[in-house]
Each structure stands twice: as structure tokens, then as C-alpha cells.
Amino acid sequence: PDHAFEVIAKNFAGDWSRARDKKRRDVPDGAPTLRLEDLTLPAKAARDPYAADTVAYAFRDEAEGAMKHVKIDDSADGSRYVAGGTIHTYEQGERWYEPSVSTTMKVDHTETFTWRDEKGSAHTGTRTYYVTDIQDIPGGYAFFYHVNATLYLKDRQTGATIFEKTYDREDEERYANALHAMFGDFCREADRRIGKT
Predict the structure, then answer these.
(1) What is the DSSP string of the chain?
(2) What digits encode the pLDDT tens for the residues 39-85?
(3) Which own/partner contact pairs does 63-66 have at CB distance under 8 Å and 24+ positions apart?
(4) Which of 52, 98, 147, 185: disulfide with 178, CB 3.0–4.6 Å?
(5) How much is the pLDDT for 34?
(6) pTM of the prediction?
């Protein structure tokens, strides 16, 4: 609960600000059209409306934000290209780290002294005093959100697959971060591939 509250509190304001300030991009006239297909989800995620909505929103959000030369077209038959894929893994978990201690030696102070050898010659020496520095490393949980997916871009006129890529993304705070990293990369590549055709 503490971790969940911290993440929500830290990210809510930023997310809201980005959503509020996001401007609709201007796509050139005659730009290629693309329809986003529903992504196939793992059974557990498919039964979770929140998970399904999170994936769908992130896919559309990145497509609308990252694709500068392609028009999103939701009509079933009106688009030239389609993008979709399969989410293979959509999971969260935590790792427990045991508390531990580490030690290092550090110089505390030094002293200069003189002494004479058996012939009476004077010599100068230095004594170095060390102390042990102890660092406590508290235990605790570290969280992760893991997404693995294969995404594709196809030409509906020819039936050809223009490109397909498998992604594996993990984030320690939110599914959305992992999803946006994956979809953002895919959409930028799709824009490069078909945006100038």
C-alpha cells in the first residue's frame, strides 16, 4: 500500500498535466491511414478490464503522439495499413531484499614522529590510524512491471507484413511506463516506414 500511494502521488499530477496539455497533431493531407487492431492479451489480463483498458489506451496514445506522418483511421475498411499484435506477458511482482551491512576501512588520522637508529641518525615516520566505517543497508521490497509482446505492421492492400518486432520491457514503478516505451518505439518505426509513402 505504501508503494502504491507513493507512485500514485508522484505521477498523478504529471500524467494529468500531460493529458490536459496534449495538442492534437496536424497530419498532412493525403497521409497514409492506419487502423489499430485490438491486441491479443494473456488470459488473466484479458479478464481484467483495467488491464485491457491500460494496454489499449497506451497503444492509441503512443500512435497519436509519435506518428507525425500517418493518420489514425478507425474504420474497418478505410485504412491502408493495420497495426496490432500479441501481448505475451503482462505481469507484476516484487522482490524482497534482505537487510545487510557492509564495512569499509577509512583513515581516521595520521601522526608524524621521529626516531633514531642504533647509529644515532634521526628519521621521520608517519603513523596512520584507521577506523571501520559501517553502512547499514535496510531490507525492503523492489517492485517490477513486466511486458513482453510481438507487434506487427501490415499493408492491407497487399497482405504483406511490413515489419514485426518482439519487445521485452520492465519498469520498477508502473505498467504504463513499460507499455509506453514499447509502443512508442513501435509507432516511431511505423511512422518512418510508411509515413512518407
Answers:
(1) -HHHHHHHHHHHHHHHHHHHHPPPPPPPTT--EEEEPPPB--HHHHT-HHHHHHHHHHHHHHHHHH-SS-EE--STTT-SEEEEEEEEEEEEEEEEE--EEEEEEEEEEEEEEEEE-TT--EEEEEEEEEEEEEEEE--EEEEEEEEEEEEEEEETTT--EEEEEEEEEEESS-HHHHHHHHHHHHHHHHHHHHTT-
(2) 999 999 899 888 888 899 889 989 988 888 999 998 877 789 999 99
(3) 63/34, 63/36, 63/183, 63/187, 64/24, 64/25, 65/22, 65/25, 65/184, 65/187, 66/183, 66/184, 66/187, 66/188, 66/191
(4) 147
(5) 93
(6) 0.67
Q: Which residue do the cell numbers 495538442 mark? A: 23
